[in-house]
Amino acid sequence: MAASSEGSGFDRDVVLIGGCGHVGLPLAIAFADRGASVCIYDISEPAVAAANDARLPFDEPSAAPLLERVVAAGRLRAATDPAVVGTAENVVVVIGTPVDDHLDPNRTAITQALGECAPYLRDGQLLVLRSTVFPGVTALVEKTIASLGVQVDVAFCPERIAEGKAMTELFELPQIVSARSAPVRERAGRLFSLLTDSIVELTPEEAELAKLFTNVWRYIKFAAANQFYMMANDRGLDFERIRKGLTQDYPRAADMPAAGFAAGPCLFKDTMQLAAFNNNNFTLGHTAMTINEGLPLYVVHRLEQKYDLSTMTVGILGMAFKGGSDDTRSSLSYKLKRILEFKADEVLCADPYVTDDPNLLPQDEVIARSDLLVVATPHPQYRGLVTGKPAADIWNVLGAGVRV
Ligand SMILES: NC(=O)c1ccc[n+]([C@@H]2O[C@H](COP(=O)([O-])OP(=O)(O)OC[C@H]3O[C@@H](n4cnc5c(N)ncnc54)[C@H](O)[C@@H]3O)[C@@H](O)[C@H]2O)c1
After folding, report:
1. Which of 47, 198, 229, 395 is the most exposed place for a label (fewest CB within 10 A)?
2. Structure pTM?
């Protein structure tokens, strides 16, 4: 690819708008690792400084040595100046696309971010939308670009990696590539062929829904497992024993997930994006939200039936939204903490990965001072941990069953 910018009139191969985030930085590293010259434009000064110092601002297994290598080789740099957007042939947008307090998607997040960069867009560029977008945003961006009077091709190529697996999945997952015309799809396919041979072509409208359906499907599966968990638990039965029994050598049910807090920056908000897209007529999605978001309430309700929480110190083990991660965005551990703070005498929290919460205490101290523990995140460090304290452990990481 390094060769592709040669003779193209551009200094670099790729620039990523919002490229210091959880999706952007691994992608920037992956392109640079495959020989592309890459620049990041990001509004976060600390994140840009970290990238230029070859420091990862968050955990992503195997990314750190690659980042060091590509920065040292001069193939990756970052800037807070949007003028860098004009330096590369391929412009990839990876900014966050959250929902607001009313669970309403921000339909103009991408076009607003592009507005800051518009003066630097140049004829001949390919603009790739990588963020998960509200359906119709690709068409809106095409319209916006046309109104600017620049000859810029537009493609939507959604990211499908899971955090923590970026540096393998970027090279292994099939890449969905969509654009209005075959030549632009082929052009975007050539960019991603740097990472994978497996390219799936769709129209922009198909690809927008494909990305949302992927995340919502997963969210609904977690909700089904969580409801089964609550049904079994209410009857004094261990859901994990039931799940293990029914999935054993039975491929049709092999994808039934374990119960647990289903949270994080993507699944919930993308379910709400899809609901908004369908005029809020999305019974399955809304029900999944009620079940998944209700699980911390259910756990505390069950604990209240057994214990006088008002006299107890409760310790929460795990504040990240998933096992092995330092990411606390939209973590249900914090919802659990707020519910318990209202009910218990004291709530103490620990997490072996999280570094951005000054209220966390060392794990040993949390265990020693607590009367009761809740394992909120299935970190591998908790496997086989002996605490000597009663524990609610939906994940069964402690190995004593999932009943609460
Ligand atoms: N996190 C995941 O595992 C994951 C997986 C697949 C898809 N996605 C999607 O990818 C997108 C990005 O998610 P993320 O987790 O990387 O978000 P993030 O918040 O970690 O990163 C976004 C980055 O964009 C920067 N930014 C915000 N506004 C900007 C602007 N106007 N101009 C330039 N930079 C700007 C931020 O400073 C930040 O560094 C979202 O649409 C998300 O749904 C995320």
Report:
1. 198
2. 0.95
71 ligand 1 Cβ < 6 A: no
Q: How far is the CA of 353 from the centre of ligand 1 (A)?
A: 21
Which two structure tokens, joined as six digits, stand for 276? 């908004």
Taking alpha carbons only, the member of 20, 33, 303, 346 closest to residue 167 is: 33
What span, in angstroms and rounded, lies between the C-alpha atoms of 324 and 318?
Answer: 10
Q: Is the CB of 99 under 6 A from ligand 1?
A: no
Give 272-317 pLDDT, tens digit per residue.
999 999 999 999 999 999 999 999 999 999 999 999 999 999 999 9
Q: Which residue's CA is the closest to the ligand 1 atom numbered 7?
A: 159
Q: Which helix (H) or strand (E) holds 245?
A: helix 239-247
Distance CA 232, CA 113 (A): 47
Question: Rg of the Cα trace of the chain?
Answer: 23
Quote the tokens at residue 300: 């505390």
Q: How many Å apart are CA 51 and CA 27, to the nearest integer?
A: 13
Q: What is the pLDDT of residues 103-139, one digit of tens each?
A: 999 999 999 999 999 999 999 999 999 999 999 999 9
Helix (H) or strand (E) holding 360: none
Strands 12-17 and 38-41, bridge-based pairing: parallel
Query: Which of ligand 1's atoms lies nearest the C-alpha of 44?
Result: 37
The CB of 84 under 6 Å from ligand 1? The reply is no
Helix (H) and strand (E) counts in the chain = 14, 12
The residue contributing the CA closest to ligand 1 atom 43 is 132
